[in-house]
Specification:
Chain lengths: ~150, ~160
């Protein structure tokens, strides 16, 4: 685990949403955290470089703009796993991808600007890998909240 | 009421300019404005409108769960009676440790599960204990379940249009 101090922890806890929209948003957020604008910028830069943060910016909900998100899975033969991962990850439509312990061992989310884009991405992956893509589009969303605090 | 916000070319340019992240400069919205050729107030107004319409869920830090100590990530999946799944899904989604909860189609015979609940913990034991609480809540309405632990993040870039 990378080194995270108390201020980093506070940044992660308090800046997972509600980042200000104003002329100097980092200055305003820094004031709430009790640090300077320059220090906040430097810390965000460091947390991104250390991969403690994967991004700092807007989180888009593509369905609200007419697009689609679909969870999909592949059963990848072990000896081809890295090659298939590289192939799947190369598609810009793949927003994230996880290796999981199951016969279906690769789980990824496709995000496309139109619903038709999902089928095209699935076809592309099936053609490129020769594997069957199992798509699990959501039938209903009960809850989504991606904010997590730093564990001690 | 229209169900879908209309996004024009400027909105789209703003999404493309921010999907990898906000500029790390004191005036990030002014920097974006310059990049896409509008005023800073226009960028701020459009971002507010996208938050209002739900196109932007939120603006801020997106942590790597592993790096902040949530090293065990289990996708718990359940085969729940179709007549009861919506009511139970709402209850499971309301559990404090469930970060995502969805009903999804089964893919029989390979995949009998129709309820997905993502559970994070500092250890696999912690995730399993949380899954036990979901199992208690589902009782006899769950015919089978599994926990798919993640062993590697292969990609986490977020949306790219």
């Amino acid at each position: 685990m990378p080194e995270i101090d108390a201020v980093d922890r506070q940044i992660i806890a308090e800046l997972q949403g509600d980042f200000p929209i104003c002329a100097r948003p980092y200055a305003r957020a820094a004031e709430n955290l009790g640090i300077t604008e320059a220090e906040l910028l430097a810390r965000i830069e460091r947390l991104l470089a250390a991969k403690v943060l994967t991004r700092f910016g807007p989180m888009f909900q593509i369905e609200a703009m007419g697009g689609a998100f679909v969870l999909a899975a592949l059963a990848v033969p072990e000896d081809r796993f890295d090659a298939v991962a590289a192939c799947v990850n190369a598609l810009p439509e793949v927003a994230h991808n996880y290796r999981r312990e199951h016969a279906l061992n690769m789980w990824f989310v496709l995000a496309t600007e139109t619903p038709a884009g999902i089928a095209a991405a699935i076809n592309r992956i099936e053609n490129d890998t020769g594997l069957v893509v199992h798509a699990f589009p959501k039938a209903r969303e009960y809850f989504v909240e991606m904010k997590l605090a730093v564990r001690q | 009421m229209t169900s879908r916000p209309m996004l024009d070319a400027t909105d789209r340019a703003l999404i493309v300019a921010t999907q990898a992240g906000l500029p790390l400069v004191p005036e990030p919205y002014a920097a974006l404005a310059e990049r896409i050729g509008v005023g800073a107030d226009e960028v701020e107004r459009r971002l507010q409108a996208m938050i209002q319409s739900g196109v932007i869920r939120r603006i801020g830090a997106v942590p790597n769960h592993y790096a902040i100590g949530w090293t065990a990530n289990g996708m718990t999946v359940w085969d729940v009676d179709d007549a009861r799944v919506d009511a139970l899904g709402e209850q499971i989604g309301a559990l404090p440790f469930v970060t995502h909860c969805y009903r999804r189609p089964r893919a029989l015979p390979l995949w009998p599960y129709n309820l997905f609940a993502m559970v994070h913990g500092a250890s696999r034991d912690e995730v399993c204990a949380k899954a036990d609480r979901i199992a208690e809540l589902l009782g006899s309405c769950a015919r089978a379940h599994d926990i798919l632990f993640s062993t590697r993040i292969l990609k986490k870039s977020g949306l790219r249009i």
